[in-house]
Automatic annotation (TrEMBL):
Source domain of life: Bacteria
Protein name as annotated: Alanine racemase
Gene encoding the protein: alr
Binding sites annotated in the UniProt record for substrate: R135, M314
Annotated metabolic or biological route of this protein: Amino-acid biosynthesis; D-alanine biosynthesis; D-alanine from L-alanine: step 1/1
EC number in record: 5.1.1.1
Organism for this UniProt entry: Streptomyces flavalbus
Residue ranges constituting the Alanine racemase C-terminal domain according to the UniProt record: 245-372
Signal sequence, start to end: none
């Protein structure tokens, strides 16, 4: 791949299709909503959406209306839910392009209803219940008022209640007792809505981990995000054959010989133990390589692992090559699936005390995405 940019993220759409198929089987009778917010977790929303749909996903999920409209602009016509929008959002644009919208309070619901009425249209809404996360959605004490307002919108033709949903608080471990409590509360909220007259709404609660480890949470639709990309936020909960889709790569820009005791990068937090060769790699924290990765995480070059030497800079970091036979133009793999011995993202997140989600979504625009496995 000599025509590939020096710094790039290689994204396997074959892996995305594989992971989608695995999630689809785990979901049983439920449909799969492929969550492609944050530009597909840094992988590229449009290519990932197309790959997931080709592998059996039937819905797409975004945080904002703008993200949903970018999918529509790319010619993607599958159902899309946008769930994180506040007052003044582009409701009209969403309604005109058949984007489903989430509402967790009557005021927001009324705003969506007015936008629909102003355009002689009907907005499809998903009513969100806060079952314990404490991060958006309707408190259960106020749930009857939200359901009543939505049913009035259905009666006047401005709203269609398309979904009932919530989100798990202990998202990394759906078998946590708090998630089981939320599961019961969500069932109660759904029962209330249905008794009040809601008909035909898709029920959805399960994220990636719940799709794979808590079948009772799958209902009519599941919303996998990070698993779509072959990753767990932290430690795996199951032995599911998820395949990481992204590998982050760059080519060495320069190699210099230095003596023992040479300080490396800002603050000289690393010093060479002997006469050696230092390699400059043109990726830094402006590209999504965490500044905290210095002296902590491994990378792979010429079949050998090396820990980043010294502090990560805005545009570059340094490796102490020692005796490794590598020079300018040779490829460095920061992380990947691990099939060739390169570090995996899991090996990065532990020493950085973070989650895989945070690393991949921060891979910046300067890093070209190169797609493989296209159909």
């Amino acid at each position: 791949m000599s025509d590939v940019p020096a710094a790039h993220a290689r994204v396997s759409l074959r892996a995305v299709r594989h992971n989608t198929g695995l999630l689809r089987r785990a979901a049983g009778r439920a449909e799969v909503m492929a969550v492609v917010k944050a530009d597909g977790y840094g992988h590229g929303a449009v290519p990932v959406a197309r790959a997931a749909l080709a592998a059996g996903a039937t819905w797409l999920g975004t945080a904002t209306v703008a993200e949903a409209l970018r999918l529509r602009a790319a010619g993607i016509g599958a159902p899309v839910l946008s769930w994180l929008n506040g007052p003044g959002a582009d409701w009209a644009g969403a309604i005109a392009r058949d984007v489903d919208l989430s509402a967790g309070d009557p005021a927001l619901l009324a705003e969506i209803s007015r936008a629909a009425a102003g355009h002689g249209a009907t907005a499809r809404v998903h009513l969100k219940a806060d079952t314990g996360l404490g991060r958006g959605g309707c408190p259960l004490a106020e749930w009857p008022a939200l359901v009543d307002a939505a049913l009035k919108g259905e009666a006047d033709g401005t709203l269609r209640i398309a979904g009932l949903w919530s989100h798990l608080g202990s998202a990394d471990d759906p078998r946590d007792r708090r998630c089981l409590t939320q599961l019961d509360l969500f069932r109660d909220a759904v029962r209330f809505a249905e008794r009040a007259g809601v008909r035909g709404a898709v029920r959805h609660l399960a994220n990636s981990a719940a799709t794979l480890a808590l079948p009772d949470a799958c209902f009519d639709l599941v919303r996998p995000g990070i698993a779509l990309y072959g990753l767990w936020p932290a430690d795996p909960l199951t032995d599911a054959d998820l395949r990481p889709a992204m590998s982050l790569r760059a080519r060495i820009a320069q190699v210099e010989r230095v003596p023992a005791g040479q300080g490396v990068s800002y603050g000289h937090t690393y010093r060479t133990a002997r006469r050696t060769r230092l390699a400059v790699v043109p990726l830094g924290y402006a590209d999504g390589v965490p500044r905290a990765a210095g002296n902590r995480v491994p990378v792979w070059v010429s079949g050998v692992r090396h820990r980043i030497a010294g502090r990560v800079c805005m545009d570059q970091f340094v490796l102490d090559l020692g005796d490794t036979p590598a020079g300018p133009g040779d490829e460095v793999v920061l992380f990947g699936p691990g099939l060739d011995g390169e570090p995996t993202l899991a090996e990065w997140v532990r020493p950085l005390d973070t989650i895989a989600n945070e690393v991949v979504v921060r891979i910046g625009e300067r890093v070209t995405r190169v797609y493989t496995g296209q159909v």
